[in-house]
Specification:
This protein is α+β, with helices and mostly antiparallel strands. Strands 1-2-4-3 form a four-stranded antiparallel sheet. Helix 1 crosses helix 6. The protein is globular. The relative contact order is 0.22. It is an enzyme of class 1 (oxidoreductase). One of its GO terms (molecular function) is oxidoreductase activity. Belongs to the nitroreductase family. HadB/RutE subfamily.
């Protein structure tokens, strides 16, 4: 497959996309969340390990469970967002490798190698988190990704008894563009890149 995304597509997912903190009173459908995931899952991960695990926090009750873990500056925007996704990663991702990468014994690469498995889970889970943001924008959602939460508390509340750990949070919905600040600058190519 070859080709190039047109300018409208590039604007949608990158150039005109913004981080939102204020949300319109418009719900996000289950179908949209399924569409988001069904798009993001195709982003590449090493050995197709796919360690990302996502909890979509939507109900008032679930938001209240999340509230005590939030940094003060993240409370209002999170409680008012239609959806808050907890983007996590599964430290035992390799148990699924016989299914996800069946042409070799990739599970043995990680079994008993906790440091390698942890680094692989976090790195690839972070990649999938970035794909999540791009996919969310591609299906018409605005995003508010953030740190600023008590990871241990979120893990205890939402991932107790599992091998999943939280990485970051991402508010989702339809942002109020009138509440945006001017876009912050970005580094130019020559400031961030080296050609060798």
């Amino acid at each position: 497959m070859s080709g190039k995304l047109d300018d409208a597509g590039m604007d949608l997912i990158f150039r005109e996309a913004r981080t939102h903190n204020v949300w319109l009173d418009q719900q996000v459908s289950d179908a949209t969340l399924h569409e988001l995931y069904d798009l993001m899952k195709y982003g590449p991960t090493s050995a197709n390990c796919s360690p990302a695990r996502i909890v979509f926090v939507r109900s008032r009750e679930a938001k209240e469970r999340l509230r005590p873990a939030l940094a003060k500056g993240n409370v209002d925007k999170t409680m008012n967002a239609p959806v808050t996704a907890i983007i996590g990663y599964d430290l035992r991702f390799y148990d699924r490798l016989p299914e996800l990468f069946p042409h070799t014994d990739a599970r043995s690469w990680f079994t008993g190698k906790e440091e390698l498995a942890d680094a692989t889970a976090k790195r690839n889970g972070s990649l999938q988190g970035a794909y999540f943001i791009i996919a969310a924008r591609a299906v018409g959602l605005d995003c508010g990704p953030m740190s600023g939460f008590d990871q241990a508390r979120v893990d205890a509340e939402f991932f107790a008894g599992t091998d999943v750990r939280s990485n970051f949070l991402c508010n989702l919905g339809y942002g109020d563009a009138s509440a945006l600040h001017p876009r912050s600058p970005r580094l130019d190519f020559d400031e961030a890149c080296t050609l060798l």
